[in-house]
Amino acid sequence: MRISARAEYAVRAATELAAASPESATRTTEAIAQAQEIPRKFLEGILLSLREAQLVTAQRGIGGGYRLLRPADQITVADVVRAVDGPLVFVRGERPSDLRYDGSAEPLLGVWVALRARVREVLEGVTLADLARGDLPGPIAAINEDPAVWANPE
Questions:
Q1: In the chain, what are the domains?
Q2: For the segment 117-130, what is each residue's pLDDT rounded down to a tens digit?
Q3: What's the gap between Cα 35 and its chain centre?
Q4: Sign, Cα dihedral of 53, 42, 19, 117
Q5: Is pTM, for the whole model, over 0.85?
Q6: What stretch of H or E contains 93?
Q7: Which pLDDT score is estimated for 75?
Q8: Which GO terms describe its molecular function (predicted)?
Q9: Which of 53, 52, 27 is nearest to 38 (CA)?
Q10: What is the tens place of the pLDDT at every residue in 98-145?
């Protein structure tokens, strides 16, 4: 599974909005781009997708910019990734549940479905509020404590 640059930038931008103090919850595109080192034009497209997904709203005029539409503890990383990239796990452009295999490859479907379940478990288990606080939920933090997850197989 690969996380696209668009998805990674979207999560970073949304986390930047989540981290904004209540008094200055609206952030300009320029401020977000600068804080997260995201190309501004690329960010504009991302914010449009997040707006279409009803995760952020825009305010025009003086003091305008973007802010989260819901509280940060009600928006998961999965919500943001889906908003910009669609479903979390695809196999050849299809959802695992739409695939069919025959013969010796039949058990492969279970692999793809299990992968999707684990990806959902992680990405739906972390909110923007968690990221903004710098505090991963217990089950996710526990995974990261295992040194083996940090190693790349040879």
A1: 5-86+124-150 (1.10.10.10)
A2: 999 999 999 999 99
A3: 18
A4: positive
A5: yes
A6: none
A7: 96
A8: DNA binding; DNA-binding transcription factor activity
A9: 27
A10: 888 999 999 999 999 999 999 999 999 999 999 999 999 999 999 999
